[in-house]
């Protein structure tokens, strides 16, 4: 029984009476063993015990104690080696409040600290829910559990708590020390189902050793028989004489047999060099007792439980076994030799994610590109718009001398068409940049095409609207405005654009920059994938966009003013004056929508930005082409072209004199 007083009495009665004694066996319980071992050092009595208490490894207090059983402390070095094997630097340690686990916990923490491994510990008594939850909140992925399952709450066993909290799968790894009993099935009075334990513990690891593991195979030792054979003979001859007649297995029997064998061999070795005298009784230290101690310390033989050899702490140098749990069965994957410190892998361990999980999130980068679908949609629309524009420009140039076309200033119309074509080209470049990744040269090309195209297209519309306004609102004198006047207006706008772009290039030239987006992905092994986008931008991006948009807005305001002022003018000689006004309103509306989209859409919405912005530009450009050129190449326009194809107009003023304006104003215009 676990009674310290009974142990002390047994020692006094046994040691202080009778003949001289230099070696003893026992005791069974930890507190009894510690008391006797501490007392025995004052008499230099060597003690061989079976108790696994880690405290008995303290040679300053128990210098004469030799342990035939193993302790949990032998798992410390192998677990540290495992963390180094997979590069784990952050560990969650969950420990059950159990006296036998105190020493191994302190030793493991100290050993991991020596190897710069950060340990976060949480303890529990019977319910590990709170402890594990606190560790999971710190995003820990690698766990070492020191536990004895049979003393946990039957409904809150760690196996099932792991399942409940989701601490399993590709991003987690568990290593268990102690008495986890993971492979025990159909536990009585358990609210923890084997099906849940199967899921939670799949791929976890636990340590054992070749001494305590009943399935471990050993070489046949000094008895010439296997463990099973000798146990069968012993039970047949002495089964009724054992303290526990119900013992039916070799567990424990092998350790007791090896302890008796160690005693016998140590005594034989000692008697070969020292004489034993039973009288007179000598309770003090002696050469004989020292020789017994040295004989035990130098033992080296193969016993039933494996090799018997003690280290400097009086412990057996057992080989540690790493088992991996697969379908609630143990699968040996590695061994650790404490004498050499080497880990030998028997087979590659299995991991749910295909590779060992990481102790903290791996940060991966992913460059975001436009999808193929959005690229096809935006690129297809841009290409269709460009083809439409080219066709309209070709008709405009081919029939430029036909009166119906010539009266509409075909040169200016060609510039408008060229501007719309450049806008479609900017959309194609934008699509290529979004799908293939931004390139600095293409960024400049996109900017130049868009700004120049807008200035050409809207500049031509603005010039034609200004001409109509100038002719019909100047009452004092006749006004002559020729095509080269309109071209000078367009050139002035382009010159301002050139100055602004030159200032941008010299003062704050755009460069490629990588922007981290707020969106991120989590892959199976717990790695975090950060989304990044390559963009072209200058350091004062908002300022330059404001200057460009502000300058274009001023032109829009003038265009709106001229269009509103000339909204009631209908002159056949200026056959597209009303259409030009509609183009101004169209450009204004689409321009406002484009500005809102540019600043409102998140930069990470690559597909949405690409499709909406290109659609906005393409629709505005295509609508302008249809309004400017559509009336001349379709419907009544075709009939007029065919009818007037042979007619030559030498001067537009003659046409205007023969066709009275609806406003009643006298005027003269040269186009």
TrEMBL record:
Its main location: membrane. The chain crosses the membrane at residues 372-399, 411-432, 444-463, 484-507, 542-564, 584-604, 610-629. Keywords: G-protein coupled receptor, Glycoprotein, Membrane, Receptor, Transducer, Transmembrane, Transmembrane helix. One of its GO terms (molecular function) is G protein-coupled GABA receptor activity. It is a multi-pass membrane protein. One of its GO terms (cellular component) is G protein-coupled receptor heterodimeric complex. It comes from the Eukaryota. Residues 381-633 form the G-protein coupled receptors family 3 profile domain. GO terms for biological process: gamma-aminobutyric acid signaling pathway. Pfam families: 7tm_3, ANF_receptor. InterPro entries: ANF_lig-bd_rcpt (IPR001828), GPCR3_GABA-B (IPR002455), GPCR_3_C (IPR017978), Peripla_BP_I (IPR028082). It is found in: Membrane. Signal peptide: none annotated. This is G_PROTEIN_RECEP_F3_4 domain-containing protein. It comes from Macrostomum lignano.
